[in-house]
Amino acid sequence: MENTKERNLLAIKIIAALILAVIFTSSSASAANLKVDPSVEGGYTTIQAAVDAANAGDTIFVSPGTYVENLKIDKQVRVWSDSRNPENTVVKPADPAESVVEITAERATFSGFGVGDSEKAGILLKGAKNCYINNNRVQNAEYGILLQDAESNDINGNIITLNEIGLRLEGSKSNTIQDNLIAYNYGLGVSLEESSRNIFFNNYFKNAENVEGNAVNADNSWQSTLTVKSNLIRGPYIGGNFWADLEGKGYSETCTDENSNGICDASYAITGGGSDNSPLFPKVRSGITALESKLDAEAYEQGISAREKAENETMAPVERQTEATEEKPPEAEASEENAAPAPSLAVTVLVVGAAYLMKRRK
């Protein structure tokens, strides 16, 4: 009898445990998939509407198209383009004075989009933690990607180009910046302010100035542990970064690699402080060609020309006004030429002397 009771009690405990496991599994599996497709009746027509409707853990798939909105992601969701192609799934700002995408959540994902045309940031991570920003093309913004007080995020596999500043970190720490093309930005490639313990590796840098010369650069790492694995320029090791410039005279383009391991023989000193101890060397030249095919050097040159033209047009009215002030018009010169001459010094002396004699006679 006693054994029967014990067996029944054990069975009840097992059943209760199974019920709890089912409940827990159901709760974990309750994450939903939401679809953004303006062509489907009754579906979500904007990404923001899907984000607002989503619960933490949900995934949002976005159909190809151009979405005009300032997107704010404030919860733990995954936002993926359906095509995984930034060329055909594009987000542009409804208000260009604001950032296109602003992420303030933890553990959010944003992947596969073309983003740009903002007077602020293409993608802003503000107070965000443990987010994954991957496979985006960010261009035509003041800042391509901007991190403010952001921590432990992974900025991975993005093309950041044709911005005033490619990537900027402000008060941000412990972020991983890897496998990105940060090239053909009009100003700086990377700018750091009060940011430390971030790691940069396996990136392709090609800007007029790749890294702003700040002392804080020394508080960050510019390479990972040397690992046998194909890097983004098709070399045999993951290590540091590829350092190019617009004239083909960057460090990685001119360094030596005596042992042919795809790593420059000497470290590269980062402007302002710090160093890349394993800068990449183009062991496989076709790797560079493949990366350049994803970029648009011609658009960069056109952008530079447009900026120079705008600058000249801005300065021209000021110069013309200065010239008009300095140069007298012909009418004024003719008037001066026709005016009566001033009395000579001799005439003046005679007049004064005559007045003096007349006074004495009186």
Describe what this molecule looks like in 3D:
With 362 residues, the protein is α/β, with parallel strands linked by helices. It folds into 2 domains: 1-30; 33-298, Single-stranded right-handed beta-helix, Pectin lyase-like (Pectate Lyase C-like, 3 Solenoid). 28% of the residues lie in helices and 28% in strands. The strands form 4 sheets. Strands 3, 4, 6, 7, 9, 11, 13, 14, 16, 17, 19, 20 and 23 form a 13-stranded parallel sheet that branches. The radius of gyration is 34 Å and the shape is globular. The N and C termini lie far apart (160 Å). Residues 306-343 are annotated as: Disordered. Residues 118-248 form the Periplasmic copper-binding protein NosD beta helix domain. Pathway: Protein modification; protein ubiquitination. It holds the Pfam family NosD. Keywords: Repeat, Ubl conjugation pathway.
Shape: globular
Strand content: 25-35%
Q: Remind me, CATH topology of the largest domain?
A: Pectate Lyase C-like
CATH architecture of the largest domain: 3 Solenoid
CATH class of the largest domain: Mainly Beta
The biggest beta sheet reads:
13 strands, parallel
- The share of residues in helices is 25-40%
Number of helices: 7
Average predicted confidence as pLDDT: 87
Distance between the termini: 160 Å
Which structural class best describes the helix and strand composition?
A: alpha/beta
Low-confidence stretches: 18-28, 332-362
Number of strands: 25
